[in-house]
Amino acid sequence: MVKLPLRSARRGFTLVELLVVLAITALLLTIALPRYFGAIDKSRYTVLKENLRAIRSSIDKFYADRGAYPESLDELVEGRYLSMVPWDPIADSDRQWILVPPPGDERGRVADVKSGAAGTGPDGKPYESL
């Protein structure tokens, strides 16, 4: 005589078990994703502010060394004041910087730089005003 097991020999999950797992996963994602994307935006904003600070510091050092402002950001790289033109993480480019000329007659020179990205940061300030 063959003894049958008390439990069914079938393996796997029932439809109800799968639906419960999917519902829990969806609930966790609805909580986590907004925080994740918010953190990404905050980090881009922080990187933008740091890149602006680095460029402005390099422009100041260039002016202190040579007595004139650079003609472009590439001149800062050529003079080794920067290793490369920093990336604007909001505009997603290294060529979207707004170059501000110095007051006076020095046309074609760069005294300051601003972000070319449209919109406002997490603190409500426009990116162009940083």
From TrEMBL:
Keyword terms, alphabetized: Membrane, Methylation, Transmembrane, Transmembrane helix
Regions crossing the membrane: 12-33
Region of interest called Disordered, as start-end residue ranges on this chain: 101-130
Keyword ATP-binding listed: no
Record Pfam families: N_methyl
Listed InterPro entries: Bac_GSPG_pilin, N_methyl_site, Pilin-like
PANTHER family in alphabetical order: GENERAL SECRETION PATHWAY PROTEIN G (PTHR30093), TYPE IV PILUS NON-CORE MINOR PILIN PILE (PTHR30093:SF47)
The organism's place on the tree of life at top rank: Bacteria
Protein's name according to its UniProt entry: Type II secretion system GspH family protein
NCBIfam families with a match to the protein in the record: IV_pilin_GFxxxE
Organism: Pelomonas cellulosilytica
